[in-house]
Amino acid sequence: MPTPTLEEELRATRWGALLAAEQLQRCAAECAVLAVAEGGYVCRRGEPVDAWVGVLEGMLKMTVTTPDGRAATFTNLPPGSWFGEGSLLKTEPRRYDVVALTAARAVRMPRRTFEWLLNTSIPFNRFLLVQLNERLGQFIGMLESQRLHDPDARVARCVAGLFNPVLYPGMDARIEVSQEELGHLAGISRQRVNQALQTLEQARLLRVEYGAIVIEDLDGLRGYGG
């Protein structure tokens, strides 16, 4: 099977499918693909935000680390994810690191191309409105979960959040994620994540494999503990 061109990969995205052919061609010509090894950085906290970034292959994480070594993960970024639009719109320095959890391919759309789309494409603007609204809902849900739910429910909601069909349209039922990473997402220890996963597996909501989780009942995870 022939390797798809970047234009074909962009056309397969939610926003790319909305563009006229000449708009898509310009985007493909001006975007750059970045290959990242496991553990490598796609973006660094504090750097100027000069591109909108998408995930073509692999898994990334959006994270912050304190000077004393404590880490918190805001979200994982599977294929089909795009991020950084808020920082581009506000022209602020990047407020998080983006690190590859697996070997990955990312694509960078320069600021000038992003702003040109904003100025010329109504469908792209509508896409961004939905994207930003969905992202806001995601983080409100995370805050609610951390303040109101027990650890089992927090893990359930974190796992379900990785399967948002708007933000992460490339997901299937199996996700490669470590219990340590889930702990960073849920704000609890790896040991407590392990206990929660056992509880959720017994409830037949998911299945735990080595280094991965298979979803059995996504709606059940989304409503767990609610």
Record keyword descriptors for this entry:
9 helices, Arc Repressor Mutant, subunit A, 226 residues, alpha+beta, Jelly Rolls, single chain, 4-stranded antiparallel sheet
Short description:
With 226 residues, this protein is α+β, with helices and mostly antiparallel strands.
Describe this structure in words.
- Helix content is 42%, strand content 23%.
- By secondary structure, the chain is an alpha+beta fold.
- It folds into 2 domains: 6-120, Jelly Rolls (Sandwich), CATH 2.60.120; 136-222, Orthogonal Bundle (Arc Repressor Mutant, subunit A), CATH 1.10.10.
- The strands form 3 sheets. A 4-stranded antiparallel β-sheet has the order 1-8-3-6. A 4-stranded antiparallel β-sheet has the order 2-7-4-5.
List the helices and strands and how they pair.
Blueprint: H1 6-11, H2 21-30, E1 32-36, E2 41-43, E3 51-57, E4 60-65, E5 71-77, E6 82-83, H3 85-90, E7 97-100, E8 104-110, H4 111-120, H5 122-148, H6 151-161, E9 174-175, H7 179-186, H8 190-202, E10 206-209, E11 212-215, H9 218-222
Secondary structure tally: strands: 11
CATH class of the largest domain: Mainly Beta
Radius of gyration: 18 Å
Reported CATH architecture of the largest domain: Sandwich
